[in-house]
Design a protein that fits this description.
Largest sheet: 9 strands, mixed
Order of helices and strands: EHHEEHEHEHEEEEEEHH
CATH class: Alpha Beta
Number of strands: 11
CATH superfamily: Ribonuclease E inhibitor RraA/RraA-like
Number of domains: 1
Shape: globular
Strand content: 25-35%
CATH architecture: 3-Layer(bba) Sandwich
Helix content: 25-40%
Structural class: alpha/beta
Distance between the termini: 74 Å
């Protein structure tokens, strides 16, 4: 059938050491060092506290059908993160406890789905990262079509097979392997800088003069008066 119903078996995987460079780094710091790009939409929320780190194994699924997702679970390698483009549809759950138990048995690294899941209470108890746009008890069909290991859109971000994915309670960020070394080093430096800031806050030595300086530079008017509702705030009235 070609386009829309096909499976690519290969992925250009990054060096595992490059992936490991992101372990323990806050997603927010990584995102800052990518100029706020690569962040999945806030609709994609974690269902448990398990941290996420791995390589994208992408799935483009037809809404209300999970045949291609079943195949992806069988194909993905240990540590792979299955990323499902379900066209942001949350009317039907494409995966639940049974399939995720199979993913855990195969030692996969996690699931991100721009779509719905079910068996949420069980998923919350799993030490297996699951990020989803919603949940519903309504289950899927198993007829296809769908695609595996093609670029997908998940949470408003285009994710290619082999992208590095990092997730925590704030959400998920996707990093292109070609940028990973520079981004990881910058994010780690930022994390160390933040630790120093935390110490300055505790010691009461943090310099906050930049706030007033920026307000002045941006032309903010400082009014030495109280808001007057009668005059509409006109301090000269």
């Amino acid at each position: 059938m070609g386009t829309g119903f096909r499976i690519f078996t290969g992925i250009n995987r990054p060096d595992p050491l490059l992936v490991e460079a992101f372990r323990g780094l806050p997603v927010a710091n990584i995102a800052d060092e990518m100029n706020r790009f690569g962040c999945l939409d806030g609709r994609i929320k974690p269902l448990n506290a398990a941290p996420l780190l791995g390589v994208a194994f992408t799935v483009k699924a037809w809404t209300a059908d999970n045949l291609i997702l079943h195949k992806a679970i069988d194909m993905a390698l240990p540590g792979d993160i299955i990323v499902v483009d379900a066209q942001a549809d949350v009317g039907t759950a494409l995966i639940g406890e049974i399939m995720l138990r199979q993913a855990i048995k195969r030692r996969l690294g996690g699931l991100i789905i721009d779509g719905a899941v079910r068996d949420v209470e069980a998923l919350r108890q799993m030490n297996f990262p699951v990020y989803a746009a919603g949940f519903t008890p309504k289950g899927p069909f198993k007829n296809g079509p769908g695609e595996i290991n093609v670029p997908v859109c998940c949470g408003g971000v285009v994710i290619e097979p082999g992208a590095i994915l990092v997730g925590d309670a704030d959400g998920v960020v996707a990093i292109a392997p070609r940028d990973a070394q520079v981004v990881a080093a910058a994010a780690r430096k930022k994390s160390l800088s933040e630790q120093a800031i935390f110490q300055q806050i505790e010691q009461g030595t943090l310099d906050r003069s930049w706030v007033d300086k920026t307000l002045t530079e941006r032309g903010c008017e400082i009014i030495d008066a109280t808001w007057n509702s009668t005059t509409g705030g006109d301090h000269n009235g």
